[in-house]
Amino acid sequence: MTESVALGVLGLEVPRGTHICTFYRGPPGRDEIVLPFLAEGIRARNRCLCFLDSAMPSEVLSSLALQVDVGPPVETGQLEVGTPADSYLRSGTFSADEMIDYWGEEAAATRRGGYFSLTRATGEMPLALSEPTERAEFFRYEARLNEVIPDYPQVILCLYDLERFGADVLMDTLRTHPMVIVDGMVHGNPYYIEPGKFLVGRR
To answer: What is the CATH number of domain 4-202?
Structure first.
C-alpha cells in the first residue's frame, strides 16, 4: 500500500511520489498554503524545502515561526527556505536537466538512510521564466518531473499565483500536473497530458 502524506492544508492527503499544483491569489493565498504545508512537514520530521519568488526567506521564516519552532529545523538542515537563485536559477539560467538531477540527488540521499524519510518541497515559478523561451524550458521540466517523481520519497507542491501569470502559463501548468488542489480538494486533472506526448508537442 502506498503511504499517504498529510499536506497540512485543508486536511488533504496525497501518496508519496506526488507532483501536484495549486492556484491562489496574492501573498495571503500563498501563505494559507505554504505555511501549514511546511509546519506539517516539520512536525512529521520530513525534510522541508521552500523556494519562493514573491517573498524573502526571512519573511517566510518569521511567519512560519508563529506556527512552529523554526530554529532547530534550520540548524539541522531539516528546513531550507530560499529564492529562485538558490534553486531554479542556481547556475544563472534555468535548466530542466539540472533540476531533474537535483531531485534525483535528493531522493538518493534519502534512500541512503539519512535522517529524513521524506522530502516535501514547495516553490513558485519565477517571473523571470515567464517569457516564451524560458517558459518552454520550465514546463519541459514540469513535464519530465512526472516521469521520475512517482518513484521518489518526495511530495512536490507547485505554486501558481493567478495574479502573477497569464492564461498561457496557467494552461501549461494544468497540462503538466496530474493532480491539482481545487476548492479544498485534491482532484485528478482532466487537462493533464502525459510527459511523452506533451514534450513531443513542444519540439
So the answer is: 3.40.50.300
Q: Tell me the average pLDDT across 138-148.
A: 96
Q: In what order do the strands lie in the sheet with 179-182?
A: 79-82, 47-51, 119-124, 154-161, 18-24, 179-182, 185-188
Span 28-40, pLDDT tens digits? 999 999 999 999 9
The SS3 of residue 51 is strand
| pLDDT at site 112 | 84
Q: Label residue 41 exposed, middle or buried (CB < 10 Å: 0-12, 13-18, 19+).
A: buried
- Asked if pLDDT for residue 27 goes beyond 90, the answer is yes
Kindly give the residue spans of alpha helices, DSSP state H, lying in the chain.
Answer: 26-43, 57-64, 71-76, 96-111, 132-148, 167-175, 195-202
| DSSP 8-state code for residue 2 | P
Q: How far apart are the first and last CA of the chain?
A: 37
CB 23 within 8 A of CB 160: yes
Domain extent listing, the chain? 4-202
- Cite the beta strand spans of 127-178 per DSSP E: 154-161
Q: How confident is the model over 64-88, as a mean pLDDT? A: 95
Q: Is the pLDDT of residue 202 over 80?
A: no
Give yes or no for a contact between 20 and 14, defined as CB atoms under 8 angstroms apart: yes
Residue carrying the nine cell digits 508563529:
66
